[in-house]
Amino acid sequence: MTKLIVRPIDATMPGSYRERQAFFKVLRAFQAAKRGDDEFTSLDAFDAMEQFLLKRIATDDETPVEDVLNQLSANDFDTLIGSIYEAPVGEATASS
Questions:
Q1: Range(s) of the domain holding residue 51
Q2: pTM of the model as a whole
Q3: Do the domain assignments include residue 15?
Q4: Do the beta carbons of residue 6 and residue 78 sit within 8 Å?
């Protein structure tokens, strides 16, 4: 089974302040989109979150990340989002 490897934001690294700030902006829009009624705004927010995630995830077996994302449940995707900031420094994984 392919695992997604998430590179969380390491708050001790140079540049992490801006990276965390960018994440929170995307997260705020994503959370608002999940609550909102505007499908177009929602799509933009979901796309922005996915683009942010794509920079921070890889697979353990060289399966294309897009293929694994296509198989994720909405709850699995939310777990990935949480692991970007909440995971300890190092690698965190979410199974697909």
A1: 3-10+21-95
A2: 0.75
A3: no
A4: no
